[in-house]
Amino acid sequence: MLGRVFSQRYRLKEKLGSGGMADVYLADDLLLGREVAVKVLHPQYAADPAYIQRFRHEAQAAANLNHPNIVNIYDWGNEGDLYYIVMEYVEGRDLKEVLRHEGRLLPERAAEITAEVCAALQFAHRHNLVHRDIKPHNIFLTSIGQVKVMDFGIAREGNGSGFTQTGMVMGTPQYISPEQAQGLPVDGRSDIYSLGVVLYEMLTGKVPFDDPNPVTVAYRQVREDPIPPSVIDPEIPPALEAVVMKAMAKNPANRYQTAQEMKADLLRFLEGMPVTATPVLPGTAAPAAVPTVEPRKGRPWGWIAAGAAVFLVVLGVILALVFTGRGAKVEVPNLQGMTEEQARQTLESLGLKLGEVEDYYIEDPSEKVGVVVSQDPEWGTLLRKGEKVNVTISREMKMPKVTGMTREAAEEKLHETGVTVIEIVNKPVEDEDDVGKVLSQDPPAGKLINPRTNVRLEVGVELKKVAVPNVVGMLREDAERTLKNAGFQVTVSEEASSEVEAGRVIRQSPLANQRVAEGSTVTIVVSTGPAKVTVPYLVGKTQEEAENILNGLHLVPHVSYVIDPVHVGKVVSQDPASGTEVEQGSMVEIVVGKLP
User: Fold this and answer.
1) Residue 552 host element (H or E)
2) DSSP string across 56-99
3) Apex CA 241: angle with CA 237 and CA 244, to 5°?
4) Distance (Å, whole) CA 285 – CA 10
5) How far apart are CA 239 and CA 267, in angstroms?
6) Which end of the chain offers a freer environment for a tag, N or C, measured as fewer CB atoms within 10 Å?
């Protein structure tokens, strides 16, 4: 596999790791000249449409999440039977490896890491996406101290009012929420529970529930309260323990309702302020309808019998959800590969109904057209008769040839095809016969597209040169209005500047008074004000390390010393505190220990 080039662009050069579904390689992006990580689906799954759909879903879901605490997805596709995702390559280690080699973390560092994961989750949840597999293996600590969340392989999108019910147990047993363990619907609060488990592990060095049997772990997630972290280590701050226990409340209503709420409490802890969390454990009921057996006083066998009864009930529920889903009247069939009409007939024969039909526009000519590629609920889920199953059907849309047509005729043909996004770029031409006609198109004719594909048409316009107005120093709105009134197209980019007031134009291209074709594009660069950076956590680092980090962020270190024989040459405090946002060029005070 090493040395293979995907899409004539990504050359695999080193294997970084392997997971249950895929291998990850370090690769060179030959087009952009950068290193990337390429995740390649194991060949045995490539023939299964369900796995391909899940792999595709990971790429599509994560590609829409552009956030500094989420690993970026750049590209995805397939090379024959090999499906791959191209991701941002970051140097560092996952949190599980850090805990395995270094043991539990200082409370402050654990809180900082958790707060950054909260930021990533809040962004994903705002985009109606639940991760469903938050664990140390999927939290990456880069070599420069950044925290990044990865692997949205089992994430699910919501339907606008809530998140999709899966009907099956997914995730890692030691970290899943009680509702996940029971196959119930999940939302962002399930990720918060899992993150609470991760914070518990960072503080204590162990997960709250563990057992060689995953069913036993799932049972304990549903029915048992975790041992408070302070029982394991009395030095764990009570405020941080309160955050852990609130995040891990059995009932989602008793947890933080958003990741932003949890992050706010973590920042309060880091700043030495009181947190809003108060422990809701023990004794908060899980959302399952599990019977409670009251043992008789003085009869220890009653406790054993009660525990055994509860265990058998929950075990039966979990096993049923995981392996068979029995208990409802109708098992949803596997509709993948069927036509819409075949799916309808199959469902009706079982007493079920075909629900919403969504379109999925294929991008690979080898994919079948007009068949079911995914369904919700998934096959094997049990429904009552009369309930609906939603399906997604593969469709084909090809880019028509519109070059040589008039602009109006080309737009009409594209609208008839189903295209909704058309970008017109005017190109001055000398030949009068080319005026008003489509000179080029992107995508090219015959390429598979979808209704949201951006179709770019280059249209000939009469060549006429006019002087570009001077807009440097103007407010962005005034500059755009001036240029558009003069007949120019305008593109805007932003750039930090300590010299130009935020919102005003720093420079323009073409320059003022330069004569260019009317209708040309003028690019203006608008100031966002002085650049801001986040102050890093420096306590415990050597003076040299701290100064190098600050200089790399364009911050000015100011060093003072305090007698501290234990921490000679190391930073014992800093101001501003880590996480504070300041302007580049700001001074950061670091206090370094020295001998008497």
Assistant:
1) helix 543-552
2) HHHHHHHHT---TTB--EEEEEEETTEEEEEEE---EEEHHHHH
3) 145
4) 51
5) 11
6) C
Residues 37 and 75: beta-carbon distance below 8 Å = no
For residue 133, the one-letter residue type is D
Token pair for 485? 């009134």
Give CB contacts under 8 A, 24+ apart, made by 401-405. Answer: 401/441, 401/445, 401/446, 402/438, 402/441, 402/445, 402/457, 403/438, 403/439, 403/440, 403/441, 403/445, 404/437, 404/438, 405/437, 405/438
| Helices 188-204 and 259-270, axial angle in degrees (round to 10) | 30
Tell me how far apart the alpha carbons of residues 39 and 20 are, in angstroms, rounded to a whole number.
Answer: 12
* Contact yes or no for 58/85 (Cβ under 8 A): yes
Question: Taking the CB of residue 300, how many other CB atoms lie within 10 A of it?
Answer: 9
Give which of 334, 339, 399, 335 is closest to 369, Cα–Cα.
339
Question: For residues 12 and 4, what is the distance between their CA atoms, to the nearest angstrom?
Answer: 6
Active site residues: 133
| Cis, peptide link before residue 282, omega less than 30° from 0 | yes
pLDDT tens digit at each of 596 positions of the chain = 788 999 889 999 998 887 667 789 999 999 888 999 998 888 777 777 777 776 677 677 667 778 889 988 888 888 877 888 898 898 899 999 999 999 999 999 999 999 999 999 998 898 888 888 899 999 999 988 899 998 865 455 544 333 333 344 456 889 999 999 888 888 999 999 999 999 999 999 999 999 888 888 888 999 999 999 999 999 999 999 999 999 999 999 999 999 999 999 999 999 899 999 985 444 444 444 533 333 333 334 443 444 444 444 444 444 444 444 444 467 888 898 899 999 999 999 999 999 999 888 888 888 889 999 888 887 767 788 899 999 999 999 999 999 999 999 999 999 999 998 899 999 888 788 999 999 999 999 999 998 888 899 999 988 878 899 999 999 999 999 999 999 999 999 999 888 899 999 999 999 999 988 878 899 999 999 988 899 999 999 999 999 999 999 999 999 999 999 999 999 999 999 999 999 888 999 999 999 98
